[in-house]
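Field reference: sequence -> structure
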Amino acid sequence: MHTLTIDYPPEVLWALQQEPDEFEAEACLLLALKFYEMGKLSTGLAAQLAGMPRITFKLLLGQHGLSPFGETPEVLQEDWDNARRASDRE
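Structure field:
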């Protein structure tokens, strides 16, 4: 796992009325949402970036005006293949 460090002034926390952990979690979510919106990440990878389960990320998409069905057929096929492989392991 790689780590990204972003310096931000304490005034950001004051302006947003957030604690550091709240701000950092929201920043990760917003970054993941933007990459998903741009079509650069699938819901699975974006969810990993946001640090949450994929189903939770997909539910949050609607709250941010995004569709969980905006994936390409190739991404859907990859998700389907991954789900089949996971169910075969059980």
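Note: Residues 28 and 38 are 15 Å apart (CA to CA).
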